[in-house]
Structure prediction request, 262 residues.
Amino acid sequence: VQVASANLALVGRENTGNTQLLESIVIQLLRQKAQAGEPLGILICNGMDDYTESRSTFAEAIGARVMRLHKLPMNPFSLRGLERRPQLHTHTAMTFADALARAYGLGALQKSTLVQSILAAYSARGITSDPLTWDRTPPSFYDVHREYRSRPSAQREDALAPVMENPALLDLFDENVPEDGSAWDLVRDVVILDMSGYSDALKHFALGILLERLSARLSALPRTLNRRFDKLILVDNADPLLNSGNPGLEELLSEGCDHGLG
Prediction:
């Protein structure tokens, strides 16, 4: 499939066939890629109920794996494969805190407390501002959660505590994910991320951090003039994310086509 841009925006009212059209496009793309002998990894996300088990026919038609917001195979604090810029671990901590703050409405003080907890968890693993330490085993979200809970009460924020408990109790991230596992690996085959039944805040946070981690990995890849895309991110019902100013989604939209991603 030779195109000038791998991006596509579909705008329409609800219940007018938007999702059905997207499904048709996905099926045709996969068929064309298969005929050409070219791989196409797809990650399909939607906070609505369009890609649940009730739509198993579509999932079967494209040979998709259906994942829930449970034990996602990625570590949001891994530094491997990312662009080596100064204070990379601090940038990663701030990105995570920003995503959590946007989803749950946290203030500056709660964000600062979370960043300090993340940096302390990095330090406990021997990861500092020295780039030579960045390939060491990173802390998991649960390490950060334990670090936050172990802080003196005067250094904790009451508003942050229940927010941290939410993804921890629901096992949002897989604590035993391989060290080199990343969000980028989710786009190697066809994956449907089924987020139905979860709170809006958790949906926004999970999808926000996932897209931002994809964006961070994208920034480390060399640019190419090859417009044949081999990865596709489909975000149905993207309006809430765009209205909230999601940096990861905006970066993927602006830079993705230079790296074979639409």
Notes: The CA atoms of residues 31 and 191 lie 16 Å apart. Residues 200-219 form the longest helix (20 residues). The beta strands are 41-46, 65-67, 190-194, 231-236.
